Amino acid sequence: MRKIAVSLALCLLLAGCGQIGVQPEAETDPETPQEPAVVLPEEDWEEPPEPEVPSGGLYLLDSVPILDPATEEMIWEDKGDYRQSVLWSPGGSYVAIARTTETEVMVTVLEPVKSAYWHMTMPDGSNIPEGAFLPEEDWGRWSGNDMLLVTLGGVRGDTEESTYRCSIRMESSRLKGTSTEQVTKKLAGIYDFDHDGIPENMELVTLLDPEVEGRAEFYELQISKKDGTRLWTESAHRSHPGWTSMFACRIDGEDYLLRYKPGMWQGWAVYH
Fold first, then answer.
1. What pLDDT does 163 receive?
2. Is this model's pTM higher than 0.70 or not?
3. 148 near 109, Cβ under 8 Å?
C-alpha cells in the first residue's frame, strides 16, 4: 500500500513538471473574421512610372468642345493643345479658336451650323510661321460680325507684335477668309464731334500691301467714343490720292468733321 502511494505521488510530480514552459493558446473572438493573407506576384510590386513633364511645364488638353450658348449642346469638337482660347462673334455666327502648341500657333474660325471652318493664313497665303506666339491677353477682337482682328508676336523673328485683319465670308457652304496686316496710329487732337461733352478717339489705320512689304494699300480713319462705339469710318485707297480728304474744323464753337470726296473718271467728275 505504501509503494502504491509513493508511485502515485511520483507520477503527479512528473505530470506537474511537464506543464512548465507551455503557454496557453490565445483565445480568438468568434465575431471578428480573420482575413486571409494575400501574396501578390512580384511584377505587381513594380513602382509606377513618374508622369512626364512637357516643355515649359504645360500639359495637353484632351479636347476643345464648342457648346451652343443657348442649348449648351456640343456642336463641334477637336483635339486640345497646350493653350486654347475661344471668341464668339457679336452675332454668334462665327467662333474663333486660338490654339498654341510648343512651337506653333493656329487660329481657326468656325461656322457651327454648317460645321464649316477656315484656318487663318498670312496675307501671302502661307501658314502662321513657326515661332510666332499669341499675347497672354487680348489676342483677338471681333470688329463687326465678319471681321476678326488677330494679334501675333514673333512673326518676323522678334518679339514685336503685329495685327492682322481677317475678313470672313461664306461661299457655297464653305467658309473662306483673307488676312491683311494693319498698323494703327492714334491721332493728336481733342475733338467732340457728337457734342456730348466727351472727346472722341481718332485713329488712322493703315492696311499694308501683301505683295510689297511696307507699302500701304489703303487707309481708314476711325472715330470712336470712349466706350469703343464707332461713330465714323472713312476709307481711302492709295491708287486715288486726293480723292478723299478729311478735316477737323470748328464752327460756332463746336467741332465738326469736314469731308471732301471728289470722283474723277474719263470725261466726267463728281464733287461732294
1. 95
2. no
3. yes
